[in-house]
Amino acid sequence: MNGMLAVLWREYLFFKNRIWSITGSSLVAPLLYLTAFGWGLGRAVNMAGVTYVDFIVPGILALSTMNASFNAVSTPLSIARLYDRTLEEYLVSPITLFSFAAGKILAGASGGCMWA
After folding, report:
1. What pTM value is reported for the model?
2. Which of 11, 12, 89, 100 is the most buried (most CB within 10 A)?
């Protein structure tokens, strides 16, 4: 349990130090989708009396949240494994593999809700 909290705390500190770059890069794709499909193509489309913009915004929010959560954990983990070679430090630390995985999974799940 303590190992999982340590990994979760490390992910929180990582996000806290890079909040603007992570948030800014997470907002680029949804704004492009909204501009291209919502306002560009969606002006002429009506679906059962609902404008296309009202129809597509919840989907864009869900897509962006899931994508940001996945990328917030998977990209730094891949970089740590392939380039920095710091994944081995976690594996030889006195925490279980389950604690490490659970901490990363919780960081990704809470990242979409709170951090991203």
Report:
1. 0.60
2. 11
Q: Assign residue 95 a region: left if phi > 0, alpha if psi is -120 to 50, beta otherwise?
A: beta
Distance CA 114, CA 59 (A): 18
Q: Is pLDDT larger for residue 115 or for residue 66? A: 66
Cα–Cα distance, 92 to 43 (Å, whole number) = 56
Tokens of 103: 């901490």
Number of Cβ within a 10 Å radius of residue 54: 12
Dihedral, CA of residue 78, residue 80, residue 86 and residue 89, to nearest 10: -50
CA distance 84 to 76: 10
**How many other C-beta atoms can be found within 10 angstroms of the C-beta atom of residue 27?**
13
